[in-house]
Amino acid sequence: MKKTTLGLALAALCAVGGTGAWYALHNKAAQAPNQTDVIMSGLLSNPEQVDPMSWGIVANQLFNQGDKLRAAFCFYVFQVRTLPFVKALEGTANDNNIVASRNGLNQLLASQINEWIATDPEAVYQVARQAIAYEASLSQDNLRPQSVPQEAWRLIVAQERQSYAQEMENTLGSPQQRQALAELRRATGFEVGPLKEPGAPLPPEWLSPAASK
């Protein structure tokens, strides 16, 4: 069973909007004031304590309220942050429940978020890189299942993070790959262009200078 689904299968139908579209959003994020709505304040106040599945629920809420860029970011965090649980509980009594819950939420989010962000694979790549870098900065120690020893848990977390990041790089890591996806999307008649109606910019707390390069 393939678990490290970035949702990038749909990126095969993506189109490049160009780096300018991403950096315009990035610069706005640096200048915009923080929002104080309940959803965002909960995430920003103590992100390490947020249940991994809740990142997906929040992504759905943000998308429905029009904050699609933030929803995409939370979607990628949800994907990578839940993977260690799938791996750690594999073959246990909780295996089917955790996989079914993750897959159901993942499919719901992918169907709406990928349809929106897939118009610009540069944005897919940049937002995913930011989400990966952000998630990697958050400890998962307090989320460890009781049945998993601490060192084994840390190893699983590191391996799943690396696998997810590598899949993203293998799919969209080069400008040539992103351009090829754009050409494929154009050839198949799908929409091409920068992101439409992204909503609120990403909070500065989520942005990594290293991931912006």
Report on this model:
It is built from eight helices and no strands. The protein has helices at residues 19-31, 38-45, 52-64, 68-88, 95-117, 121-136, 150-172, 175-187. The protein is globular, with a radius of gyration of 17 Å. Mean pLDDT is 81; it is low at 1-36.
What is this structure's SSE topology?
Layout: H1 19-31, H2 38-45, H3 52-64, H4 68-88, H5 95-117, H6 121-136, H7 150-172, H8 175-187
Helix pairs in contact: 3-4, 3-5, 4-5, 4-6, 4-7, 6-7
Report the total helices: 8
- Give the amount of beta strand, in percent: under 5%
Residues in helices, as a percent range: 55-70%
Rg value? 17 Å
- Biggest beta sheet summary: none
Order of helices and strands: HHHHHHHH
What is the terminal-to-terminal distance?
33 Å
Low-confidence stretches: 1-36
Shape type: globular
Average pLDDT works out at: 81
Number of strands: 0
Structural class: mainly alpha
